[in-house]
Design a protein that fits this description.
about 475 residues, microsome, Cyt_P450_CS, signal, four-stranded mixed beta sheet, binds protoporphyrin IX containing FE, membrane, alpha+beta
Length: about 475
């Protein structure tokens, strides 16, 4: 009966991509390869653009409406706060942490976590971003002048060190010891989750448990939880004293301290709940901003004129001084801000999110969605919708962010509405600090041609592993700038 209702909805929406009985469109996602998964998602984004904002996607018998129109999206993001059931595969990993939690749990956790992202707290983190990015700039000497090299490891460990120090008050020194089993395990588990989400034949637990993927999943999960568990245990011991000592001083209060206190101190979150929330912060905060900063570095390498303009802006703010960046410098770096936003538009670190329709809703475009429908919020497609970005929507042009947006939900790398990303400003500050620090020290480039291919003008090949990543692992050339 439900399927009949979904079929009825889907008939009102155009989709020229062939779907088969039982499989639906899942045959397009059968490969293990993340780049192939992303190509299929891009195809649905383009199809929705062609059809005026919506298209259908059948994942086996499960129906999704894919949306790339900001007017419909604004409505959906304000009315449908529940995550789609397909996120249960991510929930198997991080439990009821705020990001995938059902709405009643989410409301409580959001209330506790939100105040910790106040401007005062965020500004107090900037010296940590500045210090950690100077460590990164130093580490990058390893690849300076060595031709094409990946910057991923450097930016990922920078993000890890910054998040752990700001959120948990723990120095993990990932930059100096970059072989962190936690980071590799996290990357691999994301890949497994992404694959299971798009392959309905892997949905039943009875099937999945028989496959080697499940053994890997459990092993990666163990590594990740061991890491987080150790941190929490050590912090629980010292936190009480730390908090007492910091009272009345200007010392930085970490998220972990703030959320423990806000949720009632010793009688607040259990160890397990604190573990879930901590894991969300580390998970949501590390790879996403590392991916965003790494894509930005790749874009600067491809657009030397834009890079020079950003460097000029840095010279205006810092002159010839090597002084560390401060929180007052960040709002002055307006062009760098536009470059990062333009990068997040073309290469959103989270290209797709999925919400669930709980109550019947009629979208501004006139289509009525029934309970149980999934909504595929196509961030990648929305960002390339020519109706809102013009005919040059696929071109990298940061200047577009110096003008007002055509619609507030046309640019949604951090999602939109009451359940948007809590770390939005944190991420912008961390990424800006990292990219500014690299640019002050290095010129970023790429050879014009490689194997006869015009590198600068070829779009990056990206994969979908929950997060979107460059399959070449963000490869560029670095040369030291001579002052
Ligand atoms: C470029 C970097 C980042 C991007 C692109 C990003 C993107 C997102 C997206 C798309 C969501 C899902 C929202 C939804 O379902 O509507 C989200 C949620 C969230 N993000 Fe971020 N994020 C970034 C960085 C961060 C950082 C640095 C933190 C924390 C330090 C953070 C914390 C969170 C939290 C707590 C949520 C869950 C919010 C909720 O469900 O209420 N994010 N983020």
């Amino acid at each position: 009966r439900y399927t009949d209702r979904f079929t009825e909805v889907s008939r009102k929406i155009k989709c020229s991509i062939k779907s088969y009985p039982v499989l639906g469109h899942a045959y397009l996602f059968a490969s293990r390869d993340g780049a192939s998964r992303m190509r299929s998602f891009e195809m649905f984004g383009r199809e929705a653009i062609k059809n005026g904002g919506l298209t259908n996607l059948w994942m086996g018998g499960k129906y999704y409406v894919a949306v790339v129109d900001p007017v419909d999206l604004e409505f959906i993001m304000k009315t449908s706060l529940e995550k789609d059931e397909v996120m249960r595969f991510a929930r198997n990993f991080i439990g009821n942490g705020i990001i995938f939690a059902p709405v009643p749990i989410w409301r409580l956790r959001r209330k506790i976590l939100a105040p910790t992202f106040s401007p005062k707290n965020l500004n107090s983190f900037v010296p940590i971003f500045a210090h950690q990015s100077s460590v990164m700039a130093h580490q990058l000497q390893d690849i300076e002048g060595k031709g094409r090299c990946s910057v991923w490891k450097y930016l990922n460990t920078y993000a890890m060190d910054s998040v752990c120090e700001t959120a948990l008050g723990v120095k993990v020194n990932a930059q100096e010891n970059s072989d962190q089993p936690f980071m590799k395990a996290f990357e691999d588990i994301c890949s497994l989750i992404a694959m299971r989400m798009v392959q309905p034949w892997l949905y039943p637990n009875a099937v999945y448990r028989l496959l080697p993927y499940n053994t890997d999943f459990e092993e990666y999960k163990r590594i990740v939880f061991d890491f987080i568990g150790k941190i929490i245990k050590s912090k629980r011991k010292t936190m009480k004293e730390d908090t007492e000592q910091k009272k009345g001083t200007n010392d930085i209060r970490t998220f972990l301290e703030l959320i423990t206190e806000a949720s009632g101190g010793d009688r607040g979150y259990s160890d397990e709940e604190l573990q879930e929330e901590t894991l969300v912060l580390v998970m949501a905060g590390t790879d996403t901003s590392a991916v965003g900063a790494s894509f930005t570095v790749c874009m600067l390498a491809r657009h030397p004129d834009i890079q020079e303009r950003a460097y000029e802006e840095l010279k205006e703010v810092f002159g010839d001084s090597n002084r560390p960046l401060t929180s007052e410098d960040l709002p002055r770096l307006k062009y760098l801000d536009a470059i990062i936003r333009e990068t997040l538009r073309l290469y959103p670190p989270v290209p797709i999110i999925v919400r669930s329709v709980e109550k019947e809703i009629t979208l501004p475009s006139g289509v009525t969605l029934v309970p149980g429908c999934g909504v595929l919020v196509h961030i990648w497609g929305t960002h390339r919708n020519p109706r809102y970005w013009g005919d040059d929507a696929d071109q990298f042009r940061p200047e577009r962010f110096l003008e007002p947006l055509k619609h507030p939900a046309a640019f949604i790398p951090f999602s939109f509405g009451p359940r948007n990303c809590l770390g939005y400003q944190y991420a912008m500050m961390s990424m800006k600090t990292a990219v500014a620090t690299i640019l002050r020290k290095y010129r970023i480039s790429l050879p014009g041609k490689l194997d006869g291919v015009d590198v600068a003008n070829t779009p990056l090949t990206v994969s979908f592993d929950v997060m979107m990543k460059d399959v070449d692992r963000f490869t560029v050339q670095l040369e030291k700038r001579i002052k």
